[in-house]
TrEMBL record:
SMART domains: HTH_ARSR. The keyword Transcription regulation applies. The lineage of its organism: Bacteria, Pseudomonadati, Pseudomonadota, Alphaproteobacteria, Rhodobacterales. InterPro entries: ArsR-like_HTH, HTH_ArsR_DNA-bd_dom, Metal_resp_trans_reg, WH-like_DNA-bd_sf, WH_DNA-bd_sf. This is Transcriptional regulator, ArsR family. Signal peptide: none annotated. It comes from Shimia haliotis. Keywords: DNA-binding, Transcription, Transcription regulation. PANTHER family: ARSENICAL RESISTANCE OPERON REPRESSOR ARSR-RELATED. Pfam families: HTH_20 (PF12840). Residues 6-103 form the HTH arsR-type domain. Gene3D superfamilies: Winged helix-like DNA-binding domain superfamily/Winged helix DNA-binding domain. GO terms for molecular function: DNA binding; DNA-binding transcription factor activity.
């Protein structure tokens, strides 16, 4: 997932990235990798933490990697998986919220988000 600027995201790109996250198992895999930080996790440890193993985990990792959300790197006999999506996920959030309440007719248009 390539971005020119932190908020330069198209509807098409947002839709394809959200589609990659449109599975509870894939979302669980990504969350586990985000929790692990830049060190990542071996494919075996990732499977233990998420309960997703074997060909199912391989399938989900392929989809997440194609969306630019994770990487897989062979280190010796292990495959290390890591999240690389911090900016991409932030961009998705910005995409959804940047025009929040723009069409609201409510007198209180300041709907803070945190």
């Amino acid at each position: 997932m390539k971005h020119d600027t932190p908020t330069d995201i198209t509807l098409t790109l947002a839709a394809s990235t959200f589609a990659a996250l449109g599975s509870e198992q894939r979302l669980s895999v990504l969350r586990s990798l985000v929790r692990a930080g830049s060190d990542g996790l071996t494919i075996g440890e990732l499977g233990k933490r998420t309960g997703v193993t074997g060909s199912t985990l391989t399938h989900h990792m392929k989809i997440l990697a194609q969306a630019g959300l994770v990487t897989q790197e062979k280190q010796g006999r292990s495959i290390i998986c890591a999240a690389v999506a911090y900016d991409a996920v932030r961009d998705l959030s910005t995409f959804l919220l940047k025009e929040c309440c723009a069409d609201s007719t409510s007198p209180d248009k300041d709907h803070s988000h945190g």
